[in-house]
Design goal:
about 325 residues; alpha/beta; 2 domains; four-stranded antiparallel beta sheet; 13 strands; binds adenosine-5'-triphosphate; ABC_transporter-like_ATP-bd; ATP binding; transport
C-alpha cells in the first residue's frame, strides 16, 4: 500500500514546551487513520505539520510525496482541512461561502458550481443553500465545512475534532459521509478525535500519541487478529459496585487480571471463549441477573487506557 504521509523523527517545540518529541509514523493511502491522545498530547501540532501550517524543528515530513514547507502551494491544492473552528463567513450564505473558498483554488466557475450542487445534494442541504451561516445549525455548518474541505477534490482530508458539537444523529450522518467519500472518491483521511466510539467505527489504523511521542500505532485488522485474549462485556440488572472487590478477587484467582467495572456492566479480557461459562458462574453466585453478554473483538478503550499507563511512558 502506498504511503500518503511519512513522518520521521519529527520534533516540534514551542519555546521550552516540546509539543512533538521524536515522532515517526506513516499513514497509508485510501484509509481512515485515527489519531488519539490526551489534551495537549500533540495531535493538532502533528496535523498542522502535515498540512504545512507549522514547520518541524527536526526530522523529515513527506505528504503525498511532497515536502509540506517547500511544496506548500502544490500540497494545499491536494489536501482538505476541517477543524473544530471552521472559519466560515457568518454573513455569507452556505452557497456563497463555498463559492468563495472554491475560487481560492482557481476552480473554473462552471465546474465549481457543478461540484457545489452535487455535494449539497449528496449532503442533503440543497434547500438551505441560501441560508446565512450565522443562521445555520451546527450540523448544517459542519456539512458545509466538509464540502468546503473537499471542494478541491483533495487526496488527503485532515479532520481535527471535526465532529465536536454534533448530536448523535448528525454525528452518525457525518460518519456516513466520511465513509462514502473514502469509498467513492478514494480520499485518505487523518481523523483526530477524543471520541473512541467514533474512532472504532471509522478508522482502519490507529495511532496514539502521549506527551509528543507515539505510544501506539497499528492497523485495526492486525489488532483484532493478533489478540491473545478476548474482550467481553456482561450487562447485569443489579448494581455491580456492591460486589466489585469479591468478584474481582474471584476472577483474578481464575487468571483474569483485567476487569473494568461500571454500575451495570463488567468488561474483561478472558484467555479463551471457554472461560465465559466460568465468569457467568461467578456472577450468578452473587445472584446477579445477566441480561447481555457481548464479545468485544476490538476494545479501543482498553488499548487507550493501557497506552497511557505510566510504565508505557517513553
Ligand atoms: N501555537 C502554539 N504556541 C505555543 N504552544 C503551543 C502552540 N500550539 C500547541 N502548543 C502546545 O503544544 C502542546 C501540544 O498541543 P496540541 O494542540 O498539539 O495538542 P492536542 O493533542 O491537539 O490537544 P487537544 O486534544 O487539547 O486539542 C501543548 O502543550 C500546547 O500548549
Amino acid at each position: 500500500m502506498n504511503k500518503i504521509v511519512q513522518i520521521k523523527n519529527v520534533q516540534k517545540r514551542f519555546g521550552d514546551n516540546i509539543a512533538l518529541d521524536n515522532i515517526s509514523v506513516d499513514f497509508n493511502e485510501g484509509c481512515i487513520h485515527g489519531l488519539l491522545g490526551h489534551n495537549g498530547a500533540g495531535k493538532t501540532t502533528l496535523i498542522r505539520i502535515i498540512g504545512g501550517i507549522y514547520k518541524q524543528d527536526k526530522g523529515e515530513v513527506e505528504v503525498l510525496g511532497l515536502n509540506p514547507i517547500h511544496d506548500g502551494y502544490e500540497l494545499r491544492k491536494n489536501i482538505g482541512v476541517l477543524s473544530e473552528n471552521m472559519c466560515m463567513y457568518d454573513r455569507l450564505s452556505i452557497y456563497d461561502n463555498l463559492m468563495f473558498y472554491g475560487k481560492l483554488y482557481n476552480i473554473e466557475k462552471k465546474e465549481l458550481k457543478s461540484r457545489i450542487d452535487n455535494y449539497l445534494k449528496m449532503f442533503q442541504i440543497s434547500e438551505f443553500k441560501n441560508k446565512l451561516i450565522k443562521d445555520c445549525s451546527t450540523g448544517m455548518k459542519k456539512k458545509t465545512g466538509i464540502i468546503r474541505a473537499i471542494i478541491n477534490e483533495p487526496k488527503l482530508l485532515l479532520l481535527d475534532e471535526a465532529s465536536n458539537g454534533l448530536d448523535p444523529i448528525s454525528k452518525d450522518e457525518f460518519h456516513g459521509l466520511i465513509k462514502e467519500l473514502v469509498k467513492i472518491k478514494n480520499i485518505s483521511v487523518v481523523l483526530c478525535s477524543h471520541d473512541l466510539g467514533e474512532v472504532t467505527k471509522l478508522c482502519e489504523h490507529i495511532t496514539i500519541i502521549k506527551k509528543g511521542n507515539v505510544v501506539y500505532s497499528d492497523s485495526v485488522s492486525s489488532l483484532s487478529s493478533n489478540k491473545e485474549s478476548i474482550g467481553i462485556k456482561i450487562d447485569t440488572i443489579q448494581d455491580l459496585f456492591s460486589f466489585k472487590e469479591q468478584i474481582q478477587k474471584e476472577l483474578k484467582d481464575n487468571k483474569i487480571d483485567y476487569t473494568k467495572f461500571n454500575r451495570n456492566s463488567i468488561e474483561m479480557e478472558i484467555p479463551s471463549l471457554n472461560d465465559i461459562n466460568m465468569v457467568i458462574k461467578v456472577l450468578i453466585n452473587y445472584n446477579l441477573n445477566i441480561i447481555n453478554v457481548e464479545h468485544k473483538i476490538f476494545d479501543l478503550n482498553k488499548i487507550y487506557l493501557d497506552s497511557h499507563r505510566e510504565e508505557n511512558a517513553i
